[in-house]
Amino acid sequence: MIALRSRWAKALSYLIMAFYAALVLFPVYLMLVTSLKNNRQIFTKPFGLPSPVDFSGYIKLFTVAQYHIYFQNSIFVTLTALLVIVILTALASYALAKYDFQLKNFLYLYFVAGLIIPIRLGTIGILNTMINIRLFDSPWSLVIVYIAMGFRWEYSS
Question: Is residue 127 a contact partner of residue 144, using CB atoms and an 8 Å limit?
Fold first, then answer.
């Protein structure tokens, strides 16, 4: 009796996981299939497979839109911010964990309070600051913002 109940519970959990996987993967499928259709096929058969397969969108992406430049910028910003975040948070975490000094609790609470305040509240201020220091429209402005966002998140975890 217990083995039968366990088998049904296992089957039900697999069914729920399969449904969730389909729910999560369906938008990815839809994105990939739609990217291989022309405009007419997108509106006539939105969920169907493309026939014929149309690669003109990808050709336009790499020739006209210069996607490789955007991709290089993304890699540069991500790796630079990640490297700085890992180094700074490791150093700060070690110092706050191992050494006992007067401002230790204050600094810890300061970093934790950074999690409470949403970064969106400072968007206008961040934009004005980037314009004032002439980093507007530069990958370095993103690096600075990502470091600030990542440092407050990584330290407290």
Answer: no
